[in-house]
User: What shape does this take?
Amino acid sequence: MRTHLLAVALAIILPTFSAHAQDAAAGEKVFTACKACHALGKNSVGPNLVGVVGRKAASYEGYNYSTALKESGITWDEANLKEWLTGPAANKVKGTKMVYQGLKDDKKVADVIAYLATLK
Ligand code: HEC
Assistant: This one.
């Protein structure tokens, strides 16, 4: 009985887990485009993105953010990141200095967010 329950539990958990791993791996490739401006672990043209998921916008120390982003009041959860990454200025924060047209493919957006979530 116990073994059976474990098998059922694994059958539910494992596919979800591997789908996630795959998304993050695909997202790492999408992130190549972001690397033009974002370095990991330090500020560059754009701010450091390690730990950005769940962080308050414009809060990474030592980076000179735009006033628009500082005043946005956003916390970078999945929904906000989704809007931001499809067009930072057009869809989310007018006046941001992230001059990037945005990702047009929903899967790429989801994948790159999954990848960002692995950066701790
Ligand atoms: C052309 C340069 C450029 C590219 C390309 C770029 N960014 Fe940015 N990014 C910036 C700048 C500059 C900021 C700071 C914006 C501000 O202060 O208004 C920023 C800010 C951000 C923030 C908010 C960080 C915080 O601390 O509030 C996130 C999240 C982000 N970028 C993700 C990405 C992702 C993911 C990609 C790739 C899909 C990407 N960026 C591509 C320049 C860029």
About this structure: The helical segments are 2-30, 67-70, 78-85, 88-92, 106-118. The chain has five helices and no strands. The chain has a mean pLDDT of 91. The two ends are 39 Å apart (CA to CA).
